[in-house]
Amino acid sequence: MKVKINGKVLNAKEGETILQLAKRKKIEIPSLCYKKGFEDLGRCRMCLVEIKNGRRKKIVSSCAYPVKENLEVQTHTEEIIKIRKDIVMLMYLKSPDNKYVQKLAEEYKIDEPKKYIQKINDDCILCGLCVEACRELGTNAISMVQRGSEKKVSTPYDDESKDCIGCGSCAEVCPTDAIKVEETENTRTIWNRKFELVSCKICGKNYTTLETIKYSEKLLGEEIEYICNECKKKITADTFKESFKNIY
Amino acid sequence: MSSNKKILVCCGTGCLANNSYQVYEKFKSLTKEKEITVKPLVKPTGCNGLCEKGPVVKILPDDISYFKVKVEDVEEIIEKTIIKGKIIDRLLYFDTNTKTKITDHRNATFYKNQHKIALRNIGEIDPSKIEDYIERDGYEALKKVLFNFKPEKVLDMVEESYLRGRGGAGFPTGIKWKTCASYDNFPKYVICNGDEGDPGAFMDRSIMEGDPNTVIEGMIICAYAVGSNQGYLYIRDEYELARKNMQIAIDSAREHGYLGKNILGSSLNFDLEIVRGGGAFVCGESSALMASIQGKVGEPRAKYIRSVEKGLWEQPTILNNVETWANIPPILLNGPNWFKKIGVKDNYGTKVFSLVGKVKNTGLVEVPMGSSLRNLVFEIGGGIINDKEFKAVQTGGPSGGCIPKEHLDVNLDFDSLDDIGSMMGSGGVIVMDENTCMVEVARYYMEFLSEESCGKCTTCREGIKLMLDILTNITEGKGTKEDLDLLIDICHTVEKGSLCGLGQTAPNPVKTTIEFFKDEYLEHIENHRCPAGVCKNLTSYHINQDECIGCGICAKKCPVDAISGEPKKAHKIDQNSCITCGECYENCPVDAIKIGGGIVES
Fold first, then answer.
1. What confidence tens digit (pLDDT) does each residue in A105-117 have?
2. Are residues B445 and B427 in the same domain?
3. Between the CA of residue B375 and those of A108, B342, B350, B355, what are the distances in Å?
4. In terms of CA atoms, which chain B residue is nearest residue A146?
């Protein structure tokens, strides 16, 4: 299938989106909420592009738009650039103290209307990556709650979640470090719930929560040894070393 | 002795709020206990449209209509009208256009200009009795279709009628059905969108409450045409009576063999289920509605793959609005050519409007497409309350625009309204008079939308919030010209950048008020004055000393005793104690009270 991006004719695969094609061909389209393997799309609006199919021009989100034969795409028209700049400006008004957003603001050279900067900084840009990560894991402990300008990510009724396993994947994918994870020597507190940490039987370091291990055991159907990732790597490396010894 | 006399008591939501159920019960009990020679049949019906003058009672076959009927009037109606055939003058409708009292409501200007298709049965039947619907040709279209037409013929007929979706977008229903029918992927679903949520709109509510069977019949016909076995009615939770009447209708349709397995002995299996909407405005958007039925968060998705191909549970789905469904049975029964004789080119049939705001006759109105807005406001609506000056009409709910008096002759159809920056929407019409502040109107809609946006995409969620903040500043006297530029600027980003129709159309109220009422914005910004006297920070009231006759009404009405003066001499307002409530302005018999700018700022 032939698709034109910024005048260049490209071979596109049936079923892929404009953004996937662009990524494959190393054409830059900014996007904040897209991650390979995650389903939910179209939140941040940064990946908007202009398309021409036949005579009609339209602005679409490239992360969701499936490629079509003879589609013509423009990724950086004046209008698109202006919209992206406005999106960053809107994010900045909500999260003026956030480093990630500040960097974007600098990059896009926004001209923010100072009097509309919100008084309480909110780090979350509602990209939804955390919710998707949690959903992918099958835990579904957090989701988008409320709507409009009250929208946020939370557990049901903001209570401590019985489904949360404290794995911290949500915090890991968060681009703006908006999810609070408090760790002491033996505990991790996330989404209002305190988890006991378990220690690695080799190095003795606390590395994950008991609930995470139990959840993995349930999925795998077998017991897991309490070994942290670093030690696991070390063991694998040692095994290799031993086997190579026998060969040579 | 029984008679052919019928007493129809309107039990639509508007009339119910005015005790019409008690009126109905009183009629019931009095006709039962009284030793009268003529026993009339008493029936509760759906909404008659003229909600403002409710409760409405109609007496058949004499065609006498009584308005604003109270429980105390019931005995007199039976004594005089039912038994003696006399008309009670005081309960007749007073037509403000012709300045006459009217016996048969159908002769009133409000009703005369209407043409009822979707509302054809409402007010005439008891919605809880399927027999009433059947008596008025109910389920005849279904019988005709099931035993005489192939599904392709049904699709052709709907396409030929060029019926356009009454939910707002005006997409041709026939094309939607044909596309869905073309996919060889089963199961398919048929959905009724009853999540009407525009401020001031109650068309769909009235149909679901007053004639639920027509919606069901329309859906069964569609199921037959596209090949579906399961349908859903998504009804917003606040519409309790609509849900109740719809459930009664579904149950009786099942009992009568119109729903379920082998409908009327044919090979069609189809059933319906009601899904209660949680009260989010955005769930009226098709993909958010489907997400909600599936138990997910009510957020729209990018619809580059249409729901006729992949909709509910990723299966081909037909979603139509309540009013669209109500049009299906008459179209199939009378044929597309009959339908195309009503309305104007490419906009055939009728449209139901809920006419509210500052007009004399508020209520539900069904007119042929292409009627003029002027006809709707000044003929049917009877003009502006207290004969004040007309200022604008807001059509299409929060996504629509404000239409100024220059465009009063615009035709009410999908294309003409689009051309002037507004839209048909689901049919809400809010009339505004000279005392409506257009900046405040825009601010109100942005407030509504900032709460009702699902918040999924940045442009809609944050963009509308910024628009709201700017408009709030302007109405409070803190706005600047730069703010106005920023407002115009951000409208474009929200419109072009948003994911679904809610965000894409959200700037319409702002854009149209700026286009048609820019002076009013500038008056707020530059002179700190709200010409309509609505924005309290920017309003003060003054008494024109030459015009005041010293009647003292204003002083009596003033809740804070800020007005003083001797009888028959000009009065004065103490600006320090005035709370700018506007009571004096509203009540002055000689219009001597004038609206000035804000005191603090100026």
1. 999 999 999 999 9
2. no
3. 51, 17, 14, 12
4. B454
